[in-house]
Amino acid sequence: MSPRPAPDLDLRREQVLRTTRRVAESEGWSAVTMRRLAAELGVTQPVVYSAFAGRQALVDAVALAGFGDLAAALEAVEATPSARMRAYLDFATAHPRVYEAMFSMPTGLPFAADDTPEPLRRAFSGMRDAFPDDLGVRAEVVWSTLHGLATLEAAGRLDDGQAQARFALAHHVLTRPGPD
Fold it and tell me: pLDDT tens digit string along 2-20?
């Protein structure tokens, strides 16, 4: 009997990650368990654990992939304030559970540090390209403002009918020349 081929760990990780995102987006993070993922994939729990050490590793992987997706969304539009702001908010609306993993759930991902992963740096650069300054402070303030809008909108705490007015006001305030 010949030995079974070694599993392709990258492929397995991608399958688990894709399934995690699908379950989280359709049913929320409370539905994401290692047992549930194993059942969805038709494998045993040890197979899932061979790809990710645990649920936190999955959340971190979803967040990291989400930052890569956000960077791609920002890079896919013009580097203008309006286009980048809209792309950010559209991403948050289209992927609420991924966005939650990126910003609201505990994660071990370092932000604004020497060891910040490349997808996070790329996403921030996507915003900084539209709001340049020497230290990146404008991009930080824009990002923070958009994050607040996205989070409050996702929680249903803002009037849906005023979304365009909020966007227009945020754009107006954020694109004005800042203090020197």
Answer: 555 556 889 999 999 999 9
With beta carbons less than 8 A apart as the criterion, state whether 162 and 152 touch: no
Rg (CA), the chain: 19
For helices 81-94 and 163-174, what crossing angle results, to 10°? 140
C-alpha to C-alpha distance for 101 and 44, rounded to whole angstroms:
25
Q: Supply the pTM of this predicted model.
A: 0.91
| Tally of CB atoms within 10 A around 152 | 12
Q: Shortest CA distance to 65 belongs to which of 127, 115, 7, 13?
A: 13
Angle, to 10 degrees, between the axis of helix 96-103 and the axis of helix 81-94?
100
Residues 6+ apart with CB under 8 A from 75: 122, 126
